[in-house]
């Protein structure tokens, strides 16, 4: 696996709510960035926000794209998926230290990887938000604030089964996107699209529910209020036997 910087975005404000988090998750696009990593704070206390996109390539034949169908299957099966390796290597290359507080969020396959990053305990993940991620048996460590956002008309969330481990640290928000309207004609799994989850995230922001507000307060407490910078990363799967450059 090789990771490289795609673009640096300086002087940005940290996320102030779930809608900001969803808005910063990279959209799945061939050749584009799959991971966005934001750095906040100074040398005494640095915190991070990591955003992970979904499946880019649905071809069953593996290529140099680590966010592909093969990685999707491996991630659901809790194996060492290429997408997971790409995120871990991007975090290391970005300079995330093991003790730095981290918020991780992801859409679809990126949501699975987000929980796996937390479960690995290689980094100090303190909050996780997933949007449209298939159910998995990956246990997020105790004490990690976790928000799971699912659309009841999104079939992708059920692909991994129904064995997600519940805990008192986990909140689940479910919404039927097309409860009062017909799904768009010609769209595959329209309730799974990242844009629809961004709409739901806006509703979460506006919700008066105390537990949802507490999650957002936890998240903003981790990243703080000072400006930071973001780096977009792209992972590239190397052929078997190749050495990263």
From TrEMBL:
Residues 66-144 form the AB hydrolase-1 domain. The keyword Hydrolase applies. SUPFAM superfamilies: alpha/beta-Hydrolases (SSF53474). InterPro entries: AB_hydrolase_1 (IPR000073), AB_hydrolase_fold (IPR029058). Keywords: Hydrolase. Pfam families: Abhydrolase_6. GO terms for molecular function: hydrolase activity. Coiled coil: none annotated. This is Alpha/beta hydrolase. It comes from Cryobacterium levicorallinum. The lineage of its organism: Bacteria, Bacillati, Actinomycetota, Actinomycetes, Micrococcales.
């Amino acid at each position: 696996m090789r990771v490289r910087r795609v673009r640096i975005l300086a002087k940005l404000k940290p996320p102030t709510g779930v809608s900001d988090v969803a808005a910063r998750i990279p959209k799945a696009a061939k050749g584009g960035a799959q991971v966005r990593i934001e750095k906040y704070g100074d040398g005494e206390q640095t915190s991070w926000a990591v955003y992970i996109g979904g499946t880019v390539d649905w071809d069953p034949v593996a290529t140099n794209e680590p966010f592909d169908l093969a990685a999707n299957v491996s991630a659901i099966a809790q194996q060492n998926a290429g997408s997971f390796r790409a995120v871990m290597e991007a975090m290391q290359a970005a300079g995330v230290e093991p003790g730095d507080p981290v918020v991780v969020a992801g859409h679809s396959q990126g949501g699975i990887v987000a929980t796996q990053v937390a479960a690995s305990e290689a980094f100090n993940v303190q909050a996780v938000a997933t949007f449209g991620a298939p159910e998995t048996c990956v246990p997020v460590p105790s004490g990690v604030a976790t928000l799971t956002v699912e659309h009841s008309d999104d079939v992708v969330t059920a692909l991994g089964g129904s064995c997600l481990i519940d805990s008192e640290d986990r909140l689940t928000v479910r919404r039927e996107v097309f409860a009062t309207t017909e799904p768009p004609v010609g769209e595959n799994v329209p309730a799974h699209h990242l844009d629809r989850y961004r709409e739901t995230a806006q509703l979460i922001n506006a919700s008066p529910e105390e537990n949802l507000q507490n999650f957002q307060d936890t998240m903003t407490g981790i990243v703080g209020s000072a400006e930071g910078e973001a780096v977009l990363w792209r992972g590239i799967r190397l052929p078997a036997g190749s050495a990263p450059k």
